[in-house]
Amino acid sequence: MVSYFLQHIKYEKRLSHHTFTAYETDLTQFSAFLLFQYEFKEPDKADFQMIRSWIVALVDEKIENRSINRKIATLRSFYNFLLRHKTITANPMLKIRALKTDKTLPNYVEEKPMENLLDDMQFSDDFSGLRDKLVIELLYGTGMRLAELIGLKITDLNLYNNTLVVLGKRNKQRIIPVNKSLVEAIKKYLTLRTDIADDTTHSYLILTDSGTQAYPMFIQRLVKKYLSLVTSLEQRSPHVLRHTFATHLLNRGADLNAIKDLLGHTSLAATQVYTHNSIEKLKKVFKQAHPKA
After folding, report:
1. Which of 15, 82, 208, 210 could form a disulfide with 19 if both were Cys (CB 3.0 to 4.6 A apart)?
2. What is the pLDDT of residue 252?
3. pLDDT tens digits for range 231-252
4. The pairing of beta strand 163-167 with beta strand 157-158
């Protein structure tokens, strides 16, 4: 039943490749545990005690609670699927609770360092330089995810209306406005891109130096390289630029619902984490300015 479930989330629910891989990995690890610990080969027939013992084993291995909770969520989806298809009559996950996790605020780059990077940094005028700057500008200027950037195609751009279409999680499309400077950066990049483009990947916007479609590690290394020049944050990833985009918008008075739509969040709860950063900024201003603070 594991294979049927994986086919279901891949072809019917149409989850992203990253999410599908995570589900597949979690279920493979769970199956291996059952086989090793209980000589049990059927995960669909595992009971509460078996599942609980796996979670305890993960805790003993010092796996982070957030990672364990993701595995719990995978099993919850799996057994709900089995219950809907009447493969099981009782859900063994009903008594399983998520582990407590510390609330961590999103890391983001302050406005001044971002201005220094985009306005003062000397990017080269060749293809690589224009591409590198465009990657930073797209991630910071739109808040798109890494996978969305890699999957962005030339046909997704509307340079007349200053918008682009992003294909997000679960194949949901959203339209994001782009500023004039980003449009100009795209136009400059496109003039040199035609000399680099590989025939098999010509539809994708962001290419490597060899003309192939950009891949996650390539973008991650690129972003880390440039953020290292302006910030001492330990985490310097594309997702930090997504957090930076949202935090800067909120700090400048943007509506939270609008930010939710720009980020492609399905619920406001996912976006509200950015309000904590804004509140911390308000506290700082209050302490500096109020006579009774």
Report:
1. 15
2. 86
3. 988 889 999 999 999 999 988 8
4. antiparallel
- Long-range residue pairs from 56-64, CB within 8 A, at least 24 positions apart, any chain: 57/33, 59/99
Dihedral pair phi/psi, residue 63, rounded to 5°: -70, 140
Inter-residue contact 78 to 90 (CB < 8 Å)? no
pLDDT at 264 over 70: yes
What's the N-to-C CA distance of the chain in angstroms? 61
Give me 288's structure tokens.
């500096």
Cross-strand pairs, 42: none
How far out from the chain centre does Cα 7 lie?
Answer: 23
In which region does residue 158 sit, left (phi positive, over 0), alpha (psi from -120 to 50) or beta (all else)? beta
CB-side neighbour CA atoms (13 Å) of 65: 8
Domains annotated on the chain, with CATH: 2-84 (1.10.150), 111-287 (1.10.443.10)
Q: Which amino acid is at 171?
A: N
For the chain, the helix, strand and coil percentages under 3-state DSSP, each to the nearest 5: 60, 5, 30
pLDDT at 51: 95
Q: Alpha carbon 36 to chain centroid distance?
A: 34
- Do residues 1 and 44 make contact, with C-beta atoms less than 8 angstroms apart? yes
Q: DSSP labels for 150-208?
A: HH-BGGGEETTTTEEEEE-GGG-EEEEE--HHHHHHHHHHHHHHHHH--GGGTTBS-B-
Strand residues in 35-137 grouped as ranges (E)? none
Going 189 to 191 to 197 to 203, the CA torsion angle's sign is positive
- Percent of the chain, pLDDT > 90? 59
pTM: 0.70
Q: Is 262's pLDDT higher than 60? A: yes
Which amino acid makes up residue 57?
Answer: A
Distance (Å, whole) CA 210 – CA 197? 8
Measured from the Cβ of residue 160, the count of other Cβ atoms closer than 10 Å reads 7
